[in-house]
Amino acid sequence: MIANNGHRLAFHVTPGSTPTIVLDAGGGEDSSYWDALVPQLSQATGSQIITYDRAGLGASEEVKGPWDPQAAAFDLQAGLRELGVTRNVVLAGHSQAGEVAHYFVLANPGVVSGAVLIDANVPQFFTDTQIQRLVTLTAPQIEELKKAPSTKANRQLIATADNFGPTHQAFHKVSWPDSVPVIYVVSDKTPFDGSPQDAQAWRDAAAAFTKAGPDRTLVIAKGSSHDVPQDKPALVLEKIEQMTATVK
């Protein structure tokens, strides 16, 4: 348990060599999301592997207020520094963790040597038009969550909806640094399988992100839902292993 800014966060470490692989789960998910992949990654790479619970998830304490990806990146920074991990990191993030990854690499130059973003949120997707569509699309789901029994996961999903517009308008202006190579794995079905327009916008954003800088590779997880690490674990393992090999 690592303290930062008045709350404590749970970090889990599998011993190994450098580079260190840091796995960050998507919205509403905690470190247990990676339980099946961690031993496989450890065996395949020999790397130290770190998973953690973002604030309000798993064993980590909650933080009041709307979702703040910059604060989440600060939490990750505090945890890694406490663990002595200050360079040669391969950062792998799924879905909402793409926002954390962007703010983390920008605030910590030289720490991340390579990244694997797995159907992750990227700035190119969050245009004003798309933000408004998402607010409208998710409003019924958020209302149902507010009526449902209160759980940590539900509260965090509700927090993501709070202040969604300004948070993602700011994220839209963020740029991934050219110095950090990245493999972007986009799902075949995207998070918007039932909405062709939004699904196409997601695919277009993935393509735009990978074209926006050097050392960026786009990989399509054919047949996969948004839940790529669960649907296509061998592909995720392969791409993290590939990135780890290039930064050793």
TrEMBL record:
Any one Gene Ontology molecular-function term assigned to this protein's record: hydrolase activity
Keywords: Hydrolase
Residue ranges of domain AB hydrolase-1 in the record: 21-237
Tagged with keyword Hydrolase: yes
Iron keyword on record: no
InterPro entries documented for this protein: AB_hydrolase, AB_hydrolase_1, AB_hydrolase_fold
Coiled coil: none
Protein's name according to its UniProt entry: Alpha/beta hydrolase fold protein
Protein species of origin: Actinoplanes friuliensis DSM 7358
